Automatic annotation (TrEMBL):
This is Phosphopantothenate--cysteine ligase protein. It comes from Dioscorea alata. Its EC number is 6.3.2.5. Keywords: Ligase. The lineage of its organism: Eukaryota, Viridiplantae, Streptophyta, Embryophyta, Tracheophyta.
């Protein structure tokens, strides 16, 4: 069984900063409804599938977290991410039979929509002579496929979407999801593609109202967001298969930073990508080497190949866990 070092206790200072982050965060709205939906989804997917094996469940995080600067928030710091990678990856995991908890930034790219025009929704439709609304012929094949695939995923109970905006919402939801997924043991997977803020303003030290520019230039000190990846591995879901992403702009440091992250947070895999090329290539970093993954053609997604590799590694993880 893969207990690895995942049962190690957290360093005291990390435990204290994690505790303080959650104690002082503004409480989640609708948290009991979310917990109920999540439990129902996990219970349904914990039952063995047709081949007698439990369904594998992946939590995909997607989009960037915001850091509010005011409690009644007018201004915030954002993290770069359109949510395209998380949305496309969701489709490939569902196709492979996984149940997906899609933890996404409100308003970011959604599964089954990533091939539709993003900024010209109305270009998809035309009004007929009898005033009926139809999808334009030029887009009808892609729209039909998207609707069919989406409905199938929902009808089979393979997709649960949970939205976040702020770093506070994101981390509270991730904790609830991870703790619920603990019961899945190694059948659970985390695919952490969301771009998560490293710095934030603690709620109690945040301005209550809109910061006034008439007060002159502003100095602001940001606190460090506690690294929850270690907590996820050690406490929340120690048997789950964990994949995180590393984004850099400097190719010279990318792989080194990915390897450091893998060891430091005990990730099973880190997917390394560069801002300039992340849509066409990524490198899968494992503890026994790296695999370069490239988009195969104009109409393909780099996620197609990437997800195949990750599922293969997840199968090996299940074997190593004695399953
Ligand atoms: C990624 O590196 C994702 O691949 C992208 C996807 C954000 C580049 P899009 O949503 O982009 O398709 O537009 N995500 C992880 C970014 C991140 O914040 N990683 C942390 C780090 O690098 C570790 S959790 O330190």
């Amino acid at each position: 069984m893969d207990s690895g070092n995942s049962s190690d206790v957290l360093p005291e200072d990390l435990s204290a900063s994690v505790e303080s982050f959650f104690e002082t965060a503004p409480p989640l709205r609708d948290s009991s409804l979310t917990a109920q939906k999540l439990q129902a989804f996990i219970d349904r997917n914990s039952k063995p599938s047709e081949d007698g094996r439990p369904v594998r469940v992946v939590c995909i995080t997607s989009g960037g977290t915001t850091v509010p600067l005011e409690q009644r928030c007018v201004r915030y710091i954002d993290n770069f991410s359109s949510g395209h990678r998380g949305a496309a990856s969701t489709e490939y995991f569902v196709k492979a039979g996984y149940a997906v908890i899609f933890l996404h930034r409100r308003g970011s790219c959604q599964p089954y929509c990533h091939r539709l025009p993003e900024d010209a929704l109305l270009d998809l439709f035309e009004v007929g002579e009898d005033s009926s609304i139809q999808v334009c012929q030029s887009h009808s094949a892609v729209v039909k496929k998207a609707i069919r695939d989406y409905r199938t995923a929902v009808e089979r109970g393979q997709l649960l979407r949970l939205p976040f905006t702020t770093i506070f919402e994101y981390l509270q939801l991730l904790r609830i999801i991870a703790i619920s997924m603990k019961q899945l043991g190694p059948y659970g997977m985390f695919y952490l593609a969301a771009a998560v803020s490293d710095f934030y303003v603690p709620w109690e030290s945040m301005a209550k109202h809109k910061i006034q520019s008439s007060s002159g230039p502003m100095d602001m000190r940001l606190s460090q967001v506690p690294k929850m990846l270690s907590v996820l591995r050690k406490d929340w879901a120690p048997m789950a298969f964990c994949i995180s992403f590393k984004l850099e702009t400097d190719a010279d440091i990318l792989l080194q930073k990915a390897e450091i992250a893998m060891k430091k947070y005990q990730m099973h895999i880190v997917v390394a990508n560069l801002l300039a090329t992340y849509k066409r290539e990524v490198t899968v970093v494992t503890d026994n080497g790296t695999i370069d993954v490239r988009k195969q053609g104009e109409d393909s997604d780099v996620e197609d190949e990437l997800i195949k590799i990750l599922i293969d590694r997840h199968c090996k993880h299940l074997e190593q866990s004695g399953i």
